[in-house]
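Protein data:
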Amino acid sequence: MIAILQAIFGGIALLGAIAASLSKSSYDKLIGIGLLTGGVIPFVAARGYLDVAIAVSLLVPVTTIIILQVTGPEEER
């Protein structure tokens, strides 16, 4: 993988990890975990695990949407 792309995807993963660790709301934590996953998937694909990368890229957004709908904002409950 090109060095600049490694730096960009590593920065995205680091940004997602920091956002997930600093946020108080579970709603915001899931968004941070989504960013983290988006930064990690290219590294998984670069190692040749394309089946794992496809599975993760399909499962994480779907489960994030489901969990966000289940938790939802507090004022709606």
